[in-house]
Amino acid sequence: LGYEREVTKVLDALQKQNENKRQSLLLSATLTQGIEQLSEVSLRHPVFIDAAAEEGEESEKNLVCPENLTQTFLLVPAKLRLVALGAFVLWKSQSKGKKMLIF
User: Fold this and answer.
1) Rounded to whole angstroms, how far apart are CA atoms 41 and 36?
2) What are the 10-residue block averages of pLDDT along the chain, 103 residues in total?
3) Of the N and C termini of the chain, which has fewer Cβ atoms inside 10 Å?
4) What pLDDT does 65 receive?
5) What pLDDT is stored for residue 1 in this prediction?
């Protein structure tokens, strides 16, 4: 993956901070060996779901965006992306009852 070590550090910090109170989702457009290894390191009981819709299925009509969903994005220089991601995850993980999904 190239950034496995850094992601592992972020996950370790989250585990120490939240113990068993955290739910993690790992989403990937491709399922490579590196992604599988990362899921083994970061997830307790991983479940793999293929989200691809069948041909001809009108799945987009069934999608709904919750009203209380807050979307956030950060524009950062390439050198600072990992640091910014780590700081953002740690900051947001301190909010009780909040969930996050990062792409």
Assistant:
1) 9
2) 74 72 72 78 74 57 74 88 89 78 76
3) C
4) 74
5) 57
| Residue located via tokens 């307790």 | 44
Q: Which residue has the tokens 């989702």?
A: 25
- Evaluate the CA torsion angle 49, 3, 96, 98 in order and state its sign: negative
Report which DSSP code applies to 47: -
Return the sign of the alpha-carbon dihedral for residues 62, 52, 103, 94: positive
Of the candidates 52, 56, 12, which has an alpha carbon nearest to the alpha carbon of residue 29?
A: 52
Tokens of 36: 């599988």
CB atoms within 10 A of CB 42: 17
Instruction: Please name the residue that has the structure tokens 């290894």.
Output: 37
Residue 38 CB burial class (10 angstroms; 0-12, 13-18, ≥19): buried
Q: How far apart are CA 103 and CA 100, in angstroms?
A: 10
